[in-house]
């Protein structure tokens, strides 16, 4: 398999830690994404490493027994260590605070602590087999205050730090899940829900395993993912992942089913809003995108893998005296195939305790372009990815290339999908601006400026990276080039996006280049190309190639009700001196214009014959208006008269006409 075929990879700079062994125990904290290497119960040192901080935290603890769980509070302020099933020990890491340990016993009698979760820098939850206890830690007093508790039989628990939700498994079958939500010192009980277990023979003991459940935020919504090894319908083979949407308010609802079409051992990750399912037997992974259209049966949407199954790109690990290659997640962690020492954590973490590595899983978008031939579906997929801009622009360039040329309907579909996202952003930006102008910002603290994601490709992006290079391609049939340009303009108009003048200019220049003046005339006559000042100026400059362009330009300027002197300024700034003069004559204003302004502009072009023409025009105007071709002192044209004499000689000056 070529390197270009892998669409999943492990990050380049993993977090390295001391390998797990009989002396060194390794723990992972999902909230802070930190790995703890605890040697000899902490007596010979604890080293804490996270993906963002390259400076590890090192300290020693007294060996007071086997460490069951160890985690820092958010911001690394307080360390919590569980060594027994009844208590959790605390130690402050705040400057000027006592570093003496203090202990909290769980409140419920005869309860055993299953684990704990920090929900802020000073708030912690104990999960016991008999319920949940929510505490505030008071570090300066070295004590804890119980904020709230709830009694319920607990089999196991799961925590999603991104959404601050803890899920408790209850009942004998372990399949009734009770969520709790934590925020700023409050604990809210959300509606409980039941996970539907697969239909199996009565003799089989069945319960919901913690291994088959994951929690993750996908497209901003919290989901509980259930890996169901046997489908509920007997005619369907293979396992499936069932997604339950867990809202802040309202009941949990089954929304999506991801069809794996295979059986065996699986592991789940979520990367860039994609559900990644790793399969042990084949050492491959597949990805699902719940935003892509699936098969809806009235209740849930069924999804199939977006792409064919592939291994994770092999990762090269320097080993003592040799280099080891790691294939996929399975072998990535052990050169001899599947190793039980690798563990996945949500959303995108893979850890090898035996090798001492923590990776973030990543999606590579470039290989997906080749694996997903349907351009419409490819665009739907890419537009939802975080780092999509340059890949989308390259897809657009590719579909306009000679070798991979797409059909016009496909090109139209791609443009429409791009402009749909673009319009959504423009509307959100406009709503935000109007709300701010109306003074809603003060009364509504939730008012936020819309974030411009990489999926927003505006006209300058498409013009700069795609269309300007495309029109230069000599091998492309010009009819196709014009059709593509008009298709993009049509799409912008369809979404009511004002077309930038440079796109119209591109169309006009392409038409002129191929002498398609009749088409240009029609486009202007039927307002296919929108009126604008820059467009009118461009038309004025085309008069020498296509004489009717002058009148077309004047008509456009009249429709725009533009100030005439403004148009003259624009033309002069573009060195279109003759066009400016013709325009001003066309509207009858040539007797009042400043001769110096036009002579300055003509001189700047460094075209002596143009200067001669303009100079002669004003001499003739002076003769007609004042009976003499000479300039008056008030016109300040002395330097231009001197320049004219220098280049063309005194004899070239116009002599006064006498009758």
Automatic annotation (TrEMBL):
Residues 26-144 form the Regulator of MON1-CCZ1 complex N-terminal domain. One of its GO terms (cellular component) is lysosomal membrane. Residues 385-633 form the Mic1 domain. Its main location: membrane. The keyword Glycosyltransferase does not apply. It is found in: Late endosome membrane; Lysosome membrane. Keywords: Autophagy, Endosome, Lysosome, Membrane. The keyword Membrane applies. Component of the CCZ1-MON1 RAB7A guanine exchange factor (GEF). Acts as a positive regulator of CCZ1-MON1A/B function necessary for endosomal/autophagic flux and efficient RAB7A localization. Belongs to the RMC1 family. This is Regulator of MON1-CCZ1 complex.
């Amino acid at each position: 398999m070529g390197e270009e075929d892998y669409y999943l990879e492990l990050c380049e700079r993993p977090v390295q830690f001391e390998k797990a062994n009989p002396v060194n125990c390794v723990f992972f904290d999902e909230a802070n994404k930190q790995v703890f290497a605890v040697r000899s119960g902490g007596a010979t040192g604890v080293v804490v490493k996270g993906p963002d901080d390259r400076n590890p935290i090192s300290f020693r603890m007294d060996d007071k027994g086997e460490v069951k769980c160890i985690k820092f509070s958010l911001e690394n302020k307080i360390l919590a260590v569980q060594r027994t099933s009844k208590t959790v020990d605390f130690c402050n890491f705040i400057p000027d605070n006592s570093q003496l340990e203090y202990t909290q016993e769980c409140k419920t009698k005869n309860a055993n602590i299953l684990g704990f979760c920090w929900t802020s820098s000073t708030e912690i939850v104990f999960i016991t087999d008999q319920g949940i206890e929510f505490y505030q830690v008071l570090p300066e007093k070295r004590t804890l205050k119980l904020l709230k508790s709830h009694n319920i039989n607990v089999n196991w628990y799961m925590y999603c730090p991104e959404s601050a939700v803890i899920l408790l498994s209850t009942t004998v079958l372990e399949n009734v899940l009770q969520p709790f939500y934590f925020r700023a010192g409050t604990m809210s009980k959300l509606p409980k829900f039941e996970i539907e277990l697969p239909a199996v023979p009565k003799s089989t003991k069945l319960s919901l395993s913690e291994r088959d459940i994951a929690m993750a935020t996908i497209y901003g919504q919290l989901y509980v993912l259930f890996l169901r090894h046997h489908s509920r319908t007997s005619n369907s083979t293979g396992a499936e992942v069932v997604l339950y949407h867990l809202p802040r308010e309202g009941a949990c609802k089954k929304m999506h089913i991801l069809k794996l079409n295979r059986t065996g051992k699986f592991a789940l990750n979520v990367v860039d809003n994609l559900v990644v399912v790793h399969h042990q037997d084949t050492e491959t992974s597949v990805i699902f995108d719940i935003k892509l259209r699936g098969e809806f049966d009235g209740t849930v949407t069924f999804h199939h893998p977006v792409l064919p199954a592939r291994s994770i790109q092999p990762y090269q690990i320097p080993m003592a005296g040799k280099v080891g290659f790691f294939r996929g997640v399975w072998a990535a962690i052990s050169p001899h195939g599947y190793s039980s020492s690798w563990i996945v954590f949500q959303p995108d973490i893979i850890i090898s305790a035996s090798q001492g590595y923590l990776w973030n899983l990543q999606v590579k978008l470039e290989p997906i372009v080749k694996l997903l031939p349907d351009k419409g579906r490819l665009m739907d997929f890419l537009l939802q990815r975080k780092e999509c801009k340059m890949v989308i622009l390259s897809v657009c360039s590719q579909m306009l290339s000679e070798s991979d040329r797409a059909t016009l309907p496909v090109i139209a579909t791609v443009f429409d999908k791009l402009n749909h996202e673009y319009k959504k952003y423009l509307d959100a930006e406009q709503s935000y601006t109007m709300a701010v102008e109306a003074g809603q910002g003060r009364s509504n603290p939730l008012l936020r400026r819309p974030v411009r994601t990489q999926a927003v490709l505006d006209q300058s992006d498409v013009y700069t990276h795609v269309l300007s290079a495309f029109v230069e391609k000599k091998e492309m049939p010009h009819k196709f080039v014009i059709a593509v340009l008009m298709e993009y303009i049509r799409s912008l108009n369809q979404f009511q996006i004002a077309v930038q003048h440079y796109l119209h200019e591109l169309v006009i220049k392409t038409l002129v280049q191929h002498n398609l003046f009749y088409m240009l005339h029609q486009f202007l006559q039927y307002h296919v190309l929108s009126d604008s000042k820059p467009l009118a100026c461009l038309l004025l400059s085309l008069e020498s190639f296509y004489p009717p362009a002058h009148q077309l330009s004047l008509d456009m300027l009249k429709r725009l009700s533009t100030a005439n002197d403004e148009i003259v300024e624009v033309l002069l700034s573009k060195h279109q001196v003759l066009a400016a003069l013709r325009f001003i004559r066309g509207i009858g204003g040539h007797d009042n214009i400043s001769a110096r302004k036009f002579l300055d502009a003509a001189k700047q072009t460094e075209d002596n014959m143009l200067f001669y023409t303009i100079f002669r025009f004003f001499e003739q105007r002076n003769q007609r208006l004042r009976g003499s071709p000479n300039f008056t002192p008030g016109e300040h044209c002395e330097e231009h008269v001197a320049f004219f004499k220098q280049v063309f000689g005194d004899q070239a000056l116009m002599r006064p006409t006498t009758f």
